[in-house]
Each structure stands twice: as C-alpha cells, then as structure tokens.
Amino acid sequence: MTSRLTKTLAATLAAAALFTYPVAAFGAVGHPPQSTVVRTSATPIAHLTPAQLDAVAADFPGAPKSSYAVTAYRLIYRTTDAHGRPTTASGIVVLPDGRKGALTVAEYLHGTNATKAAPASVDPTSTDRLVTALFAGQGLVGVAPDYLGLGLGPGPHPYLDTKTETSASADLLLAARRFAAQHGVAFKRDVLVTGFSQGGRASLAFGRALSRGEVGPFRLGALRAVAGPYDLLGEELPAAFDGRVIPPTATFYLAYLVTAWNRTVGLYDDPRQAFQAPYASTVEGLFDGSHSDEEIVAGLPGSPGKLFTPEFAARLQHPTGRLLRAIQAADQVCQDWTPRVPVHLYSGTKDTDVVAANADSCATSLRRRGGDVTVHSMGAVDHTGTAFAAYPEIIRAFARQA
Q1: What is the C-alpha separation between 307 and 309, in angstroms, rounded?
Q2: Are 12 and 244 in contact (CB under 8 A)?
Q3: Cα angle vertex 388, ends 382, 391, to 5°?
Q4: Contact 392/60 with Cβ under 8 angstroms?
Q5: Quick one: 127 exposed, middle or buried, by C-beta within 10 A (0-12, 13-18, 19+)?
Q6: Which segment of the chain is annotated as a signal peptide (predicted)?
Q7: How many domains, the chain?
Q8: pLDDT in tens, 101-124
Q9: Nearest CA to 331 among 197, 229, 244?
Q10: Does residue 325 lie in a domain region?
Q11: Any idea what DSSP says for residue 273?
Q12: In a domain, 132, yes or no
C-alpha cells in the first residue's frame, strides 16, 4: 500500500472513528488497568478547563464555547456478549465540574475501530473522547461506550453487531448513572443520542431501544446520526463493489465485517472458502485488536475482488440464507420502529466511504412509519469532513436541551 493510500484510508474509513490527533490537554491521569479486570471500576483519565476545550475544538469550526470545566472517567462495567454471556466492557463518562442535581445525558457512539488501544477510554488523543467532552462542556453529561472487545474489553469486537452495540450502550448508561450519583449528579429521563458512521447506525438502534422502554427508566430525547451505513443491503454493500466506496476502503470494511460476522453469524467453515491466498491464512489475525489501521491496510489487497474468492464475492453481492437474514436484521434499525422525537441525519456529497444514499434510504423508511426525519447535507465534504461539519451543529442543538 502506498503512503497516500494509507493516509486516505485513515481519513475516510467507511465506518471509521473520528480522526485522532494529538491533544496534549487530554493526558491520562492514571494508567489503564489490564483488560483482564472483571469488576466494575472507575478511573479519572482527563481534566480540561473551558479554555482547553475551546482550544482543542479548533477542528470543529463553529462549535459553541464551553461553559464548564470537565473531568473524564473510564468506566469498566458489566454487560453481555454476542451470545448473551456475562462479560465486561469499557467506556467513558464525562462530568461538567461544579454541576449537581439532575442533568441531561448526551450519549455518543463512535465509528469503526479495529484496534483495542484506540478507543476513547484508553487513547488520550481520541477525538471521540474530545467530542464527548465537548458535550460536557455545555453542561451535559457525556457518555461514550467503547463497544465490546475494544478498549479494555476482552475478546474480539463483534463488528456491526446491532445487539451488542445496543446492550453495551445501554449498560454503560446504567453504570454511568450509578457512578454519577456518587458525585451528586442524577440523570434526567430523556437521553440525547448521536453517533458517527458505525456509531451513526448504532445510534438508530440505541434510540430504538430507548423508545421501546428497554433501557431502565430512560427514554429517547433526541437523535442525530452522522454518516451511518443504515442500509447495508440496498446501498452500502452494492457501493462497496461498484466503486462508489473507494476499493481499498471497501476491502478494509468488508474484511472486518466478514471475519466478525463469521464468529456471530457463521459465514464459512474455513477461511479459504471466503478469502483468496495468501490472505486466507492471515486476514482473521489482522482483526484481532492488536494491529493498527496501517498494519491492517498493509496486510490487505487493494480491492475486494483480490481479497475474496469469486464465489464469496458473488455471495456478498447477492446474499442468501443466513447472510441475507443477518443483513436484513441489521437494516431493521430504520425499518421496524417509529421514533417519537424528530430524527436528524447528516451526510456529505463527497463521502466515498458511507455513501449519502444511506441517509436518504433510512429517512424514507422511517417516514413511511410516520417518523419526522430531516436529512442534512453538509455539502461537498468527505466522510470525516461530514462529522467535522455536523458536530458543531449537534453540540449546539444538544446544549439547548441541557
């Protein structure tokens, strides 16, 4: 892979986490515990003044000034895995300093991450951590899960798994409520939900759970999702093969999806049934959580056609059986519920990772069920550019509901 291509992928991964860049103010307060920890715990990891928040928010032009200093904590909490078994996961809760009593929660769900060391709870340069802190700087409580298998969670990440994206988000919210009570903070009932890319899609699923009364006493207060792959069957998978998604980027995400879904859905018995040589012997190991994006890119070919066997590539383009059922189930995030609050979806016309048609498709499905949905085009911006353009608006909108 060329250096230019690696940089392009890092900046525009189809369901990628927000760009990370050095944020010196986010230096860790303590060392992360080991991933073998199984008890619920909380560790302070960062403190920022309003001036420091404003300084590190420079890449979000138009973001409102912060009114509060904030303290971020890493929580390790109990949840369940893809098979319903007890496990633990990590995430962050960010409290606005000096605010007590009943506060509104803004829960932020991050995009694709294939590296355990990169999520907000462990990486001091994480922009996901920054975005969550910017909500707290407005007087909200910021909450952000790492998802299963990332950060300090054991095992591999079950990528694009609606069930655990939802349960990890819900269980962190409940754990954060117990933790915040120790600091004199109670959570208001209505939760503001947002997410980028993979997290955009996950935010629809989490919003659905809140709307159905499946998350303790909480309910959905607002939903704003950015550049999410909401329609895998109708839009995102076809785009991964017809060139609308950049081929190396499509290769990364399809490899991640297929190896993860093989563990949860069962797509092949032997990697050679899905992947061509020499990748069949190495691709699963690339996504074990220990490799950086650059290492993964270097270990993959430049297009899906070079990674998958012709038979499996055809299966991805024309899914049947358990693969089709799994994709259809994933796409239900926009199809089987009616939001009781307005939904705002954000897209960019130059997004060659998660094509903008995903937002249009999701909006059409939700409106068909009576949902009030607005699609915001952020203009001629790429994948991460959509997030940088959208989040100042989202932070401002959520601040009005603090």
Answers
A1: 7
A2: no
A3: 130
A4: yes
A5: buried
A6: 1-27
A7: 1
A8: 999 999 999 999 999 999 999 999
A9: 229
A10: no
A11: G
A12: yes
**What does the alpha-carbon distance between residue 293 and residue 128 come to, in Å, rounded to a whole number?**
16
- Asked if residue 193 lies in contact with residue 210, where contact means CB atoms within 8 angstroms, the answer is yes
Give domain status of residue 244, yes or no: no
Per-residue buried b or exposed e for 129-138, using 16+ beta carbons within 10 Å of the residue's own CB: bbbbbbbbbb
CB 70 within 8 A of CB 136: yes
Measured in whole angstroms, the distance separating CA 138 from the mean position of its chain's CA atoms is 22
Domain containing residue 392: CATH number: 3.40.50.1820
- Tokens representing 282? 């190495």
pTM (two decimals): 0.91
Taking alpha carbons only, the member of 226, 63, 222, 227 closest to residue 130 is 63
Distances (CA, A) of 292 to 6, 113, 255, 399: 11, 9, 15, 35
Helix (H, G, I), strand (E, B), or coil: what is residue 293? helix
Residue 291, SS3 per DSSP = coil
Query: For residue 13, what is the enclosing H or E element?
Result: none
**CB distance 398 to 140 below 8 Å:** yes
Burial of 295 (0-12, 13-18, 19+ CB in 10 A): middle
Question: What Rg do the C-alpha atoms of the chain give, in angstroms?
Answer: 20
3-class SS shares of the chain: helix, strand, coil, % to 5: 40, 20, 40
Residue 255 lies in a domain: no
Domain encompassing residue 394? 3-231+330-399
In 183-246, alpha helices (H): 198-211, 237-242
CB 279 within 8 A of CB 301: yes
pLDDT tens across 192-237, in order?
A: 999 999 999 999 999 999 999 999 999 999 999 999 999 999 999 9
Token pair recorded at residue 250: 């499509």
What's the confidence (pLDDT) of residue 22? 31
Give the closest residue to 203 by CA, choosing from 11, 359, 389, 376: 359
**Is the Cβ–Cβ distance between 249 and 296 less than 8 Å?**
no
CA 86 to chain centre: 22
